[in-house]
Amino acid sequence: MMFDKDTQPVNLKSLITGVTIRGAMPEDVVAISKLWLEFMEYNARFNRSFKVKSKIGGRFARELEQRLTDSNYHLAVAEVNGQIVGYCLSYVSSKPYFFKLGRFGFIGDLFVLGKYRRNGIGTLLVEDAHTFFKRKKIKQIELLVADKNVNTIRFWNKLGYKVLLQWMYKK
Ligand SMILES: CC(C)(COP(=O)(O)OP(=O)(O)OC[C@H]1O[C@@H](n2cnc3c(N)ncnc32)[C@H](O)[C@@H]1OP(=O)(O)O)[C@@H](O)C(=O)NCCC(=O)NCCS
Q1: Which domains does the chain have, with CATH numbers?
Q2: Measured in angstroms, how far is the CA atom of residue 111 from the centroid of ligand 1?
Q3: 52 partner at 20 to 30 Å CA-CA among 38, 59, 92, 146?
Q4: In sequence order, which residues have a C-beta less than 8 Å from that of residue 72 and are 6 or more positions away?
Q5: What pLDDT digit, counting tens, does each position of 127-145 carry?
Q6: What stretches of the chain show up as alpha helix (H) in DSSP?
Q7: Cα 98 to ligand 1 centre (Å)
Q8: CB 119 less than 6 A from any atom of ligand 1
Q9: Nearest protein Cα to ligand 1, atom 7
């Protein structure tokens, strides 16, 4: 919880039915882009490479809106009492032509507001992405996570995800 902006946790465990996972609508993209900025801020604490330009939220919101009509994309939100508290952006991608794998699923963004974490919302969002990929007949799902983001790595491990690559860099 060290990185959480709002440290007052909300315990929804007994209220998990109070969480709605639904497909995003055009009117949601501004709220989602605000969560995205928090997500990027969160990542930037692990490494400066993840810092984003200032005043970039509006452009990101417009891009999200365009993707709502692209059948290879799936943008879902988690709503509690009418507030969007998390989102997940997943999409179908393709490996270079020489790989046998071909199409694969990619979870681009997953974020739950600090005070709503550890209530199963992240898991519900990922299960919803899995349903999307199943519908698309996708056999493998991939994602990137900062190596210092150990709590999130535990989350992915619990959901059965394993390490595929080590993404290295040098300045
Ligand atoms: C990763 C994230 C989406 C998880 O959302 P969440 O709603 O808290 O996840 P869940 O409540 O479904 O967690 C499921 C399980 O994952 C594990 N887990 C989740 N967060 C954890 C943490 N901080 N430390 C250790 N294990 C954790 C636990 O086993 C947890 O089950 P439990 O609470 O019964 O012990 C959320 O922590 C988040 O938004 N993090 C910041 C952004 C981020 O790292 N996104 C992912 C980028 S790849």
Answers
A1: 19-158 (3.40.630.30)
A2: 9
A3: 92
A4: 91, 92, 93, 136
A5: 999 999 999 999 999 999 9
A6: 29-44, 57-67, 121-135, 150-158
A7: 35
A8: yes
A9: 122
